[in-house]
Amino acid sequence: MSKGMSDNEFSKKECEAMQLDFFLPEYTFATGHHLTYHPYCSRSEAPDFICWDEAGPRIGIELTRLQIPPRYVEPLNDTDSGLSALSAVHNSCARKAGLGGKTILVLQVHDGFESLISELCSVEPVEPNKFDEYGLMEIWLADYSKVEAFGSVELFCIAPTHLYGHYIPSFDGCKPYG
Questions:
Q1: Rounded distance, CA 6 to CA 9, Å?
Q2: How many domains does the chain have?
Q3: Looking at the domain assignment, is residue 53 inside a domain?
Q4: In a domain, 92, yes or no
Q5: Which of 17-26, 40-49, 111-120 bottoms out in mean pLDDT, i.e. has the lowest?
Q6: With contact defined as beta carbons under 8 Å apart, do 155 and 167 qualify?
Q7: CB–CB of 88/66 below 8 Å?
Q8: Could you give the CA distance from residue 67 to residue 77 in angstroms, rounded to a whole number?
Q9: How far apart are CA 114 and CA 110, in angstroms?
Q10: Distances (CA, A) of 120 to 45, 105, 123, 170
Q11: What is the pTM of this model?
Q12: What is the span of the domain harbouring residue 137?
């Protein structure tokens, strides 16, 4: 166990490291930008991890579960879920805005929200530059609902503008549990 960490803090960091291990390969696949980390290098709460790229700069990664109010789990119409999801994304970004410009925010989507990324893609218009106000280096939605079946996540980049969009996952076309 890392010095100065309680058993609970250590367990939480282990869980976050496992979640990051699902995100990083897909991030590399989507962007071509390879990041590495040491799970015990960052004992601070925010950002959760300090990563390095090939050039050496340190980049923080903050993992946050996307909180969507229960009333939006079942949409009233085709655009209702996407718009409420967008509000939830803005709320999560606003809570993490103080992390600084060298931080990647990963908004985690878990079971029950597997179509959220598709819904956000269909909302017209989503203006990616509206997310610049939060001062984060990048903002990603990561769909963790496919982890058990495929061992990976599906990504949608919200910011910056030049990366904006849905990225086809590396497991596309693969059989689940295979």
A1: 5
A2: 1
A3: no
A4: yes
A5: 111-120
A6: yes
A7: yes
A8: 20
A9: 7
A10: 29, 17, 5, 20
A11: 0.81
A12: 85-170
